[in-house]
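Hmm, what's this shape?
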Amino acid sequence: MSEELPDSLIPYDEIVQDALRAVVGRVLGEVEQHGLVGEHHFYITFKTQAAGVDIPRHLTERFPDEMTIVIQNRFWDLKVHEEGFEVGLSFNQQACRLVIPFAALTSFVDPAVNFALQFHVDLDEEDEQISEHAENDAPEAPAALSEASKDGSNVVSVDFGRRK
């Protein structure tokens, strides 16, 4: 008797990933309309080589695979679209405009409430280099975030082990 599950004809993992990315879009849409409230701020990690990502060349060179940005004190012109968002940020005192599709996101974290989402991004490249820290003129993630990540509370990671 085989305990292996049959392949699903319904792409559950993709459906769930899209729904969770829609959460990020809705949250950023609220910030676009009303600004950041309370202590909320976001660490957003994305694949720099994903389709539709438009960031300055010096950032792509510095972060050839993955990059984390901080939406906190110094950001401007946040615009949320159905497929992604654009935002102005400062890197080493230099103003930059970034366009990031939701499909490129690998994580979204709001350390103020220990909320985190992790995503899977399919790229053709096998080698992945992960940027450990946000690089846009902001402090590192607070210790409370690390504590929440250790026990998995408030972290949603979806991977149904889809076969290719």
Residues 25 and 97 are 18 Å apart (CA to CA).
